[in-house]
Amino acid sequence: MTDGTTSEKPCVLLIEPIPSWIVDRAHDLFELIVLPHESERPPEFLDNVERIRGIAMPGFAKVDAAMMALLPNLEMVACFGVGYDGADIGYAMQHGIAVTNTPDVLTDCVADLGMAMILATLRKIVEGDRYVRAGRWESEGILDLANSPRGRCLGIVGLGRIGLALANRAEAFGMTIAYHNRTERDDVPYPYYPSAGALAAACDVMALTCPGSEATRNLINREVLEALGSTGYLINIARGSVVDEAALVQALLDHTIAGAGLDVFAAEPHVPAALFALENVVLQPHQASATVETRTAMGNLTVDNLLAHFQGLPLPNQVA
Ligand code: NAP
Ligand code: 8YV
Fold it and tell me: What SS3 state is found at 309?
């Protein structure tokens, strides 16, 4: 919250949760107003709307047209994350509000979790842990056999920075790679499929690493899951909005697909309760970039983008 003193520092609205050490650095550079994520807008915010010139927000937080319209002197929105689907880019562009993100610094960390989810799901790592802790190894004997990634095809929806880093990791585990983007790449040796459905029919494990957007909303629907088939796995490290979540839950319940590894959900932090009882699903709390090292780099980049703007310098990572 503001401390009541006047300041020459630009006033920035910081939407939680952004780690405290980022807030500490930003405190030295900006006058900060902290807004709890999805909270009612407190008086400290409403009394200062005219002074706010910048927003720092997690990429998934909702900064829509109504929110931006409340801030007549808003100049920029700095997303703490590579995804910026929470910000209304159309409104920002129409009103000359710059938008930045934090690409590259999180690519390896997110791809690491993607690979870990492939291994955890196919190799029953979390299920095995539960089995041992419950004393079932001793009482029931060995766990059912798992599946090897080796020789299986990984189909990547969104072969960009993270998708390619995931492909490199999967190849080290003996997987072959195929992909679907809107545009075929001319710099990779992997087979291209013009639709998610065609890719699903051709692969054994489908990983989602595309942005959340209106274009990708419910891209993975019942039809695509049927094409993936009863021996297929879905790994989602992109956005919950890319998957028709009700169709996915049904497909897992009726064994239309074999299993799933999910880091992201349609209405986080809500996770459909039906998933909790399923042994063939590995669940994570949207933590693919959540290491001290990566979050520190993301936070510094968020602050660097804000600082560049207020110093009149070119923005390191402008998306709009
Ligand atoms: P990127 O380099 O821009 O790659 C995105 C890829 O998606 C591109 O290859 C793009 O190719 C493809 N794509 C875009 N729109 C598409 C569409 N409508 N249909 C099919 N493919 C489409 O981005 P990145 O750095 O790899 O990040 C990707 C996404 O990962 C982010 O936007 C974010 O949502 C998500 N993410 C999640 C976490 C997490 O914590 N789980 C962390 C970081 C990032 P074309 O343009 O040719 O279609
Ligand atoms: C973060 C992300 O979890 O970069 C993204 O798009 O989803 C993640 O890195 C998120 O932005 C943190 O607030």
Answer: helix
Query: Which residues does a 6 A CB cutoff place in the pocket of ligand 1?
Result: 82-83, 103, 106, 110, 157-163, 180-183, 209-212, 215-216, 237-239, 263-264, 286, 288-289
Predicted TM-score of the model (pTM): 0.96
And the tokens for 25? 């650095």
* Residues involved in catalysis: 239, 268, 286
CATH 3.40.50.720 matches 11-105+293-310: yes
Q: Do domains 11-105+293-310 and 107-283 have the same CATH topology?
A: yes
Give me ligand 1 centre to Cα 84, in Å.
11
Closest residue CA from atom 12 of ligand 2: 58
Query: pLDDT tens digits, the chain, 320 residues: what are they?
Result: 444 445 589 999 988 877 666 767 888 899 988 887 666 666 677 788 999 999 999 877 889 999 999 999 999 999 999 999 999 999 999 999 999 999 999 999 999 999 999 999 999 999 999 999 999 999 999 999 999 999 999 999 999 999 999 999 999 999 999 999 999 999 999 999 999 999 999 999 999 999 999 999 999 999 999 999 999 999 999 999 999 999 999 999 999 999 999 999 999 999 999 999 999 999 999 999 999 999 999 999 999 999 999 999 999 999 98
Nearest CA to ligand 2 atom 8: 81
- How does DSSP classify residue 302? H
Domain formed by 107-283, architecture: 3-Layer(aba) Sandwich (3.40)
Contact indicator for 110, 237 with CB cutoff of 8 Å: yes
Give the ligand 2 atom nearest the CA of 287.
3
The ligand 2 atom at the shortest distance from the C-alpha of residue 59 is: 11
Instruction: Kindly list the domain boundaries of the chain, sorted by start residue.
Output: 11-105+293-310, 107-283
The token duo for 30 is 């900006």
